[in-house]
Design brief:
Length: 141
């Protein structure tokens, strides 16, 4: 893979990385939600310090709110990035290249799944991918 292909591949892969960060933050929110609900549970009749549990719950809720705000920002960034990528892909004249690039960089499908979907062997699919990257690079420069 030449330098132009590598650069284009990195550019097209941005959406996948943003999506991964969103998924990671959503898992963190789920974990914090679990922590917040556990912080309010009482398992004993013995008097204890309610203040500690309230602070833990407050901290968890604040963290959840902050993460959800970050997620919303990341989602906006993902939508814009995908729009930019779609624009570049649609500029390619070859519809076969367009389909391949969309399945890989917008639908985040594996090479194996794309090969099945398009009815190609993996080796041929990789060759097509290199050609598709060249086509997008030519349009971008």
């Amino acid at each position: 893979m030449n330098k132009q292909q590598t650069e284009m591949k990195e550019y097209l892969s941005q959406a996948f990385r943003i999506d991964q960060r969103i998924q990671s933050k959503m898992e963190q929110v789920a974990s914090l939600n679990d922590l917040a609900t556990r912080a309010t549970a009482t398992y004993s009749d013995m008097p204890g310090s309610e203040t500690r549990n309230l602070h833990r719950m407050e901290d968890a809720i604040l963290s959840i709110i902050e993460l959800e705000a970050e997620i919303n920002g990341d989602i906006c960034k993902l939508v814009q990035t995908k729009k930019d990528i779609v624009h570049k892909i649609k500029a390619v004249q070859n519809t076969e290249y367009q389909t391949l690039l969309e399945l890989r960089y917008l639908c985040f499908k594996s090479w194996e799944q794309i090969a099945v979907d398009m009815g190609y062997e993996l080796r041929w699919l990789y060759r097509l991918h290199h050609r598709a990257l060249d086509a997008v690079s030519e349009i971008s420069h």
